[in-house]
Structures are given as C-alpha cells and as structure tokens.
Amino acid sequence: MAFDFEPRSAAFIADPYPALAQARAAAPLFHSKKLGGWVAAGYADCKALLKDPRLSADRMTPFFDHLPPPAREAVATLEAMMKRWAVFVDPPIHTRLRGLMNKAFSSRAIESLAPAIQARVDSLIDEFADRPQIDFIREFAYPLPAYVIADLLGVPIEDVDRLKRWSDDLGAFVLTARASPDKYVRAEAAAKEMQSYFDALVAARRSNPGTDAASWLIEAADAIAAMDGPELTATCVLLLFAGHETTTHLLGNGLWALLKHPAELVALRARIHDDAFVAGAVEEMLRWDGPSLAQVRIAREDMDWNGATLQRGERVFLMLAGAARDPGICEAPDRFDVSRADMPHLAFGYGIHFCIGAPLARLEARIAFQRLLVRLPGLALADQKLEWSDNLVVRGLHRLDIEIR
User: Fold this and answer.
1) Which residues pair with 156 in a beta bridge?
2) Helix (H, G, I), strand (E, B) or coil at 131
3) Which of 78, 114, 240, 369 has its CA 20 to 30 A from that of 181?
4) How far apart are CA 345 and CA 29, in angstroms?
5) What per-residue confidence (pLDDT) applies to 398?
6) pTM metric for this prediction
C-alpha cells in the first residue's frame, strides 16, 4: 500500500490520528519522502525498534556533522551540551550517565515530593479558583511541572521563569519545531545561559550540599569520578528540561480529553479519592492522546527489518502516538475510557531510554487531577480555536481556555 502523510500540514498537527491509522496499515516500516526517513506506527513495531541495538538514539552527531563550518561554529555550545545528554547517547556512555541520573530520580526522591506537589497544586488553584475563565496551560499545566522540577533540583523559585524561557528556546531545537526560523540562534543563546547558571549551581552544591537531587547527583558522580564538570552541568539542564515539558502536555491534553468526554469526567469524579483508579485514568490520558508524538532513531548500520532495507545513517520515526491507538493492543482504541483495564502505550518510550521522569510525571498528574476535580466541580471548555504544537516529537496545546462555573 503506497502511502505518505503530511506531518507539516495543519490537519495533521490538529489531529494526527487518522493519518497515523493509515500509516499503521501501510506497512510495518515504510519510507516517507515528506520526512526523509522511515516510519513505524504500530505498537509491536515501535516497541521492538526502540529496543533494537542497530538503531542509535544519537541524532545530534549527524545533524551537527552536516552543518557548514560557520554555522556549526555558531552553535558550538549547543552541540557540546546536546552530545552530553543521556537521551542522545548510546551505551556504554548512556549506561554510565543513566546510572547516575537514577540517583536524582530515585523512588525515595519522588515519593518524598508528594506533599510538596499537592501544596503547589493547591497554591496554583487558589490563584484562579474564583475567576470565571482561565488559560489552563499558562496558569496551571505550564507552571506546576516547572515548580516541581525546580524543587527537586534545588533551584530557587524566583529563577524558574527565566529557566523556563531558556528551556523553551532549547525545546524549539530539541523537539524539532517547524515554525521557528531563528530557533538555532535562540537555542545557542539558551545553552550558554543555562550552562552558566548550572555551572554556578553545581559549584554551590559542591561547597554546600543540600537534600536536593542536584546534590545527590554530584555526590554520586564524585564518589566514583563518573562525570566531569561539563557532563554534570549538561545533565542538570537535561533534568530541568525533560522534567516539565511532557508533563505540561500530559496535564493539558488530559484535561482537554476529560472535558470533551463528559461521561468519562463524571466517572472519574465518582472515584476521585481512589488513588489507583485516578492513576489508571492518567494512563488512559497517556494512551489516548499523550504528549509523545514520536521518537527519532538513526540506523547504525545497513539493516533489514520486517521487509524494509535501511541504510546506515537513515532516520527512523517511531510514531508513539499512533502505536497507542493500535487496534491490536486494546479494544476500541479510539475511544477514551478512564475505566479501561488494559491501556498499553509507549508515551514514555521503551527499553534503555525509557523516560527516567515517568514516575514523577505520573505522580504529578494524579495529584493534579484529584485536586482540580475536587476543588473545581464546574469545569467546562470555553469557546476557542485550539492551537497545537507544531513539532514532530511532542504533542500539546499552546493554550486551553476553560470556564470555572
């Protein structure tokens, strides 16, 4: 079946799922001229390819290697930082970095944040509970994860806004945004600012350790001489960046799904104090319209896979959102159902690069929806034209206007 979708079209950005259903039916792995690479959209295919050692997570090296020398020199700080992010490296370097990052995202660290997360949630709700209408993204989904990851890393709250601006500029590059012609200039400037900021933070924690994740990471790295200074700084930047971007869109997409499906909102409200049920509803939000649209891999060698022949260096786009709607993994996959018993998805990836912050994102979302639905019984969608992010990696809303009745 010949097929190629238009991932840059307004229709795909607004609702990629019809095209992703066609992609699943086209072939296990098909070549897209529009994307300039191979595409997989089935659940089993994406899951297997995420674990295939013949595919590399390092999409940064080939990108920077193909830049003309003057252009490459202009983004030298950005290149150095990206090549030290664990999400863009393969074993054995990845194994070393990931082992140390586990110290910052240990179960002890995550569980200890629950009271602080609830306090942050209630504080944000206090600011708009008496107003008739708000932009949910700007006033809740955007600041909550940023504050939580700042708490975890020991970043002062007064610094969050500027760190978030820098992070957004990095995101335009990392998440392959399509409508930002100056994204490389902005990303380079942001990389320099964040490097300077976290160099100072690491130095401060070395001389005066605290109980935050940055201190634990430094202690663990120094104990076995496992990270140099640039790696520590880059890892702190990664934790800040990855710790809020997808969670913002989980919250936004999740509330949009609930308000578009009133019966499911009622079902969730009826069991809102049941932590396990609410956690299951969060998994359904991740499955039905989660924040992860795709992940990109690079063929490390010439390889044959399920009828397709890939050449070394070719890109593979793993359409995780399409995989979550695969009819082969659950009944009526296009139906949003908070009571669904089995909701497999790949929203946090799979294999060695499974998102290290997944437990934190899940905890934040569970607490957030419990407090929102308990404290605000009259939520409704306001009239609006939704604007979705235009990048190939993350799916989320720029704005979500809701009425508080």
Assistant:
1) none
2) coil
3) 240
4) 19
5) 93
6) 0.93
